[in-house]
Amino acid sequence: MAVDERLIGALHVQSRDVSRLEPEEQAHVVFQASTIGALLDGAYDGDVTFAELEGHGDLGLGTLNGCDGEMIAIDGRFLRADVDGRIHEVPPTAKTPFAVLTFFSPEHRLRTGDLLPQDELFALIDSQVGHPDTVHAVRIEGRFARVHARSVPKQSKPYRPLVDVVADQHVFDFTNVEGTMVGFRFPKREEGLNVPGYHLHFVTADRTRGGHVLECVLAAGTIEVDESVDVHLELPAGITLGGDDDDGAVEKVEHQG
Distance between CA atoms of 10 and 253, rounded to whole angstroms? Predict the structure, then answer.
């Protein structure tokens, strides 16, 4: 696998063979199944089961085969937000075409009682954590004035590109709600591997509703951040690292809604 040399300064990427996928319970390591570039292109069938994912992290996000909703990994549980934002447990035999996980071990902890729109929230984390060329896992627990979220319907073959799938997304708002956001901040100069900047999924405190975060306002809560030194990447057969996102596809699928 040829790795884009521009990524090397920020990330340590290893190509992994699913036939030799072994648990690796290490802190400050991110495990990733496939790439956002592959998902954008419609590679919605994975070769990693959630039983296998258990050995690679207790916090993270992703989706299920067929791009079936939004996956939230929290406290070692795998949850799926369906197209209407309802939460379901993910069976161990289910597979994923894209997932990012870590054994969460926070090195930074911030508490805030200020009303923080999303841009201000991210700016606060950036100012306290720094290291923009390092991958960080994020967990935000508290009360949210608003969470604008989405999920997508399960797809059938032949699969459409993700930009077309997101055009059919269902969006919903949670207001004055207790819950948790989990996800990652990847380096801005990432191309094809993962979403540059922040990528977060949300689940309510009672674990009944959730989805992919499009926008949020934090009312009060605790922000925890884990700095990761390695990214271990498992590439399914036929998948390679993508190139430049010339048409802004990541922005379209991650933030529009």
Answer: 24
State the burial class of residue 180 (Cβ atoms within 10 Å of its Cβ: 0-12, 13-18, 19+): buried
Task: Count other Cβ atoms within 10 Å, centred on residue 188.
Answer: 10
Structure tokens at 34: 């496939």
pLDDT attached to residue 145:
98
In the block, residue with structure tokens 């009303």: 115
Q: How far, in Å, CA of 158 to CA of 134, rounded? A: 36
Q: Which CATH number fits domain 108-226+247-255: 3.30.2350.10, 3.40.50.740, 3.30.70.100, 3.30.1330.80?
A: 3.30.1330.80
**Distance between CA atoms of residues 70 and 248, nearest Å:** 21
Domain borders along the chain are 5-102, 108-226+247-255
Give yes or no for residue 4 having a pLDDT over 50.
no
Q: CB neighbours (10 Å) of residue 75?
A: 11
CB atoms within 10 A of CB 110: 16
- Tokens 């990761």 belong to which residue? 228
CA angle, 132 then 78 then 113, to 5°: 50
Asked if residue 174 lies in contact with residue 147, where contact means CB atoms within 8 angstroms, the answer is: yes
**pTM assigned to the model:** 0.90
How far apart CA 240 and CA 224 sit, in angstroms, is 32
Helices (H), the chain: 5-8, 36-40, 50-53, 118-129, 162-166, 249-255
- Stronger pLDDT, 193 or 70, i.e. the higher one: 70
The CATH number of 5-102 is 3.30.1330.80
